[in-house]
User: What shape does this take?
Amino acid sequence: MIGVVLGISLGTALFVVLTTLGSAFLRASALPLQGVAADLVLTRPMGDAGMKPETTTVRGPRLPFGNQVFLPADLQTVAAVPGVTSWAGGLEVWDFGDTSYRVVLGVDPSQDRVGPMVGLTSGLLSGRVLRPGDQQAAMVDRHFAAFFGLKPGDEVIVGTEKFLLVGVSEQKESSQAGVANLYIPLDQAERLAGAPAGEVNQVYARLSDASRTEAVVKELNRRLGPLSAISQQSILQVMGGLSKVTSQFSTAAGFLGALAGLALAWAALSGLMAERRREIGVMKAVGWRARDIVGNFLAEASLLSLAGGLLGILLGTGLALGLSGLPVPLPAVGQSLPGLSAVPTSKSTTTLPVELSPLLMGVALAISLVGGTLTGWYEARKVAGWKTAVVLRDV
Assistant: This one.
């Protein structure tokens, strides 16, 4: 009996853990883009030929070395690609000091449905968000503010210009997609970096159907040349092979695990029936009918299956909760510079967002109960057909 319970509990636990793990990786891969309410974050790599490390000693604001800009005509092309429903642009600027640099992101305060303003609004901790028409105003990332003891009402200097801090915000799960140390209006970021009006180096796009992301990226590359695109699929690849395989095949793997457990239970139940040949023979000798024997063993198999299912759910739940602390790397937009450090912004990792669904528990219990009961019914039907004389003679 113990073997039957253990077999079913093992299969149920595997089903719960693998299915939960796959769902958790999918949720984790969507987190970095939730802060910008986008399905795609686009940048345009410049390539090694465009890099000029020797200029890193120049102090003050400038555009990143590794990214090209999107011209206004390029942005019109992005908007015209089938599947793109809305977009917002941002201009990342590096403000160099002696040994470090700050990341300043120019945002359009009027774009509050897609792009960094979404995360700045939802993550507002104190003060207010940037508004259309703001001049020399800035918002600050919570980590940067804590590092330098900044608060709304303080002044910060970017390059040689003073900006008044109007709010503190935290984009908790955005990784580097739309996260910076300071946020200022887009037109003022363009002025600081010496970029013409309308030019950006990050594009946040929302799609009508996220499942068509790969096709949209392919079309964007065809029209605009090589682009770097961060999407839920690319984030899964950054997380590693385990996350990619688990997210794609977790349900199938879970069912296979459950079937493996049921196979173990079947083997254990077959052995149990063989050990009880004398009992079955006596039952038939004293007048038990085949259906009585089937009903007796069926009830016993159902109880064992229920016990195994509940034990498996407990084991699977414990393992899944244990995995909730697993660190998951998040992708970065832009590049870091050797020899210089960026002032810290938000974290570059998150923990696996494990959620235990009551529906999943119900499905797991149903699989164990139905599978174990059917196994018991099959074995009971088989032993009920044994001849009484043959059974008693063999034992």
